User: Fold these one by one.
Assistant:
Number 1:
Amino acid sequence: MSRVDIGPGDLVYDVAPGDLVEVCRTLRDDELLKFEMLLDVCGVDYLGYGHAEWETRHATSAGFSRGAHRGDSFTREKLADTDLATKGRFAAVYQLLSVSLNQRIRVKAYCENDDRPMLESVVGVWASANWFEREAFDLYGIVFVGHPDLRRILTDYGFIGHPFRKDFPLVGNVEMRYDPTKGRVVYEPVSIEPRTQIPKSIRDDNRYSPDLKDGGNA
């Protein structure tokens, strides 16, 4: 378990996948910690983290990434210049609260396998993890080993793929409609044409003068 420095006042720790359940149980039961409540479990996909398809002088390097048509797929090798190179693509983040001590902590565990992301379930530690882990499984495809009823919770049971993964197409893969002749809902290939959300040009003229911004006088 190692501390992650992300800012003053935030307690964030990385936990090895094999130690996840033991660490969580200690956080709950130790008299000096008493994190009785699990507030949330959320999945994270670090595919392409730190990389952007366009850069300007006035925009951050994080914008418009998912709307671009990439020439090639991002792989773990492209994360070599970040600290995520050895941690993995997928992670689960656990938000904990100690009601009795009025403290909060965030615990993160990275999945060891990018192709089959798996972590141990913490339902046995906090019952509230049941639906949270189902959500992370549904949206990111993270499998929580030992979960009593791991199935989709937000998408349809026949849904293919995991829509919060960064390589999932923005327009989706299929669309559904009611077919009156068949008397049922049918699935068809998506008819929406994908479009790139990157500006065609970045203008730098008097319309963007700081004097005209936020009610300034021209």
Number 2:
Amino acid sequence: MESKNTDDLRVELMESSNIDEFLSENEDCFVNESISDVLNRLLAEKNISKSVLAKNSGISEVYLHQIFAGRRNPSRNRIICLCYGLGATFDETQELLKLCSSAQLYPKNRRDAIIIYGLVHGLSLFEINDKLFTEDQETLF
């Protein structure tokens, strides 16, 4: 079966007269990866330990382990901090935000523009937090 993109699914959902039928017919299209799955994949790809991730993201190891165990759902700011700690790309950050049902970074938002710049240009979380503070924007932690 050919994979459907998001727009195809949205159109089909809007036109569907039966939600159960829609869900059944499109079961293979739904995202089944958890935040823990994505974080573990990124840790392996980036060859980073959880303790280094905790240090680089400004998140306690206890809180981080709770996220990995599925006992905590991180806020948008915490997700962004994790992405900085991982050295994640802009696309990886957007993927993780979307997976967590958090608003993706939006370049027309001044604060988000600063965060995006930092991700793309390899700035540290602490450098971005300083810039956010200087620009009178909410810091990430």
Number 3:
Amino acid sequence: MPIHDDILAYNAAQSPGDRRICDALAETIHQTLAKKAPAGLESKIWHRHPVWFLDGNPIVGYSRLKDCVRLLFWSGQSFDEPGLTPEGSFKAAEARYTSEDEISAKNLKRWLAKSINIQWDYKNIVKRRGRLERLK
């Protein structure tokens, strides 16, 4: 399964430096999850940003911010990993990049493996009135 055309278009719309970051993230995310993830992997533009899902639950995505590209793991605070900082009031954690060479493929692949095995149920957060439950 190739990278979704909408994600490629999102990356192509970025400045040259940000595009290199987005392309590197998309390629590593896609290749790693396609090899390691069970059935149910999906990627698409969600709320205007590239996001990968397992069984309808968002696990990783990235977005262009004013001064960087933010990589977000929805359950990342539970990974207990250096290089990821808490984001928001739930379980998300992020890494921010201003250059492609700041991306550590080794770290990214390790975080992606954890994103498959450590998940909080964001898919049903509205149904549960903002309460998260651990899936894996």
